[in-house]
């Protein structure tokens, strides 16, 4: 998937975001962006005692949830494949404005890895809900910025025609 072309097309961005937030139908490539739990299973029970990311899941998912010792839905680490500081800083800043969020931080594990780890800890809502709210707010902010920019471009061009 060519992310740059997707981001340039506001209709596609809206469709992918609606898919990610379970507000609409998912395109074939959009399903790869959805949050999918990743876990390691033992012989008789699922073991959550260590951080384990399945390589298969990471190769086929744009976003995965790392299962850790905490079985609490209020504490999760999300792994975004193919993202960097641009998304990390923006989504961290927005999520931290939520009064129910205790902690939100991100890291790029290694410069040669194309992954972003986003950790969210909340008081009462689930970390997935905090991420969804943050993504919705980021989408709304991006829509507003785009609309404002497009209006300014039209105004500038019309002023240039008058001169």
TrEMBL record:
Keyword Acyltransferase: no
Residue ranges constituting the DNA-directed RNA polymerase RBP11-like dimerisation domain according to the UniProt record: 77-147
GO molecular function: DNA binding; DNA-directed RNA polymerase activity; protein dimerization activity
GO cellular component terms, A-Z: DNA-directed RNA polymerase complex; nucleus
Major place of residence: nucleus
Domain of life, per lineage: Eukaryota
Keywords: DNA-directed RNA polymerase, Nucleus, Transcription
Pfam name, any one: OS-D
Gene Ontology annotations of biological process type: DNA-templated transcription
PROSITE patterns referenced in this protein's UniProt entry, alphabetically: RNA_POL_L_13KD (PS01154)
Subcellular location: Nucleus
Family: Belongs to the archaeal Rpo11/eukaryotic RPB11/RPC19 RNA polymerase subunit family.
Name of protein: DNA-directed RNA polymerases I and III subunit RPAC2
């Amino acid at each position: 998937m060519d992310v740059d072309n997707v981001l340039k097309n506001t209709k596609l961005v809206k469709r992918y975001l609606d898919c990610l937030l379970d507000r609409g139908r998912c395109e074939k490539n959009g399903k790869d962006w959805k949050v999918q739990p990743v876990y390691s299973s033992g012989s008789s029970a699922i073991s959550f005692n260590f951080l384990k990311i399945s390589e298969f899941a990471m190769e086929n998912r744009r976003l995965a949830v790392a299962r850790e010792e905490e079985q609490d839905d209020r504490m999760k680490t999300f792994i975004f494949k193919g993202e960097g500081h641009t998304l990390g800083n923006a989504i961290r800043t927005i999520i931290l404005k939520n009064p129910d969020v205790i902690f939100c931080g991100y890291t790029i594990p290694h410069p040669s890895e194309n992954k972003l780890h986003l950790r969210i800890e909340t008081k009462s809502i689930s970390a997935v809900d905090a991420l969804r709210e943050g993504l919705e707010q980021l989408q709304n902010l991006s829509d507003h910025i785009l609309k404002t920019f497009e209006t300014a471009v039209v105004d500038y061009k019309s002023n240039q025609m008058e001169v």
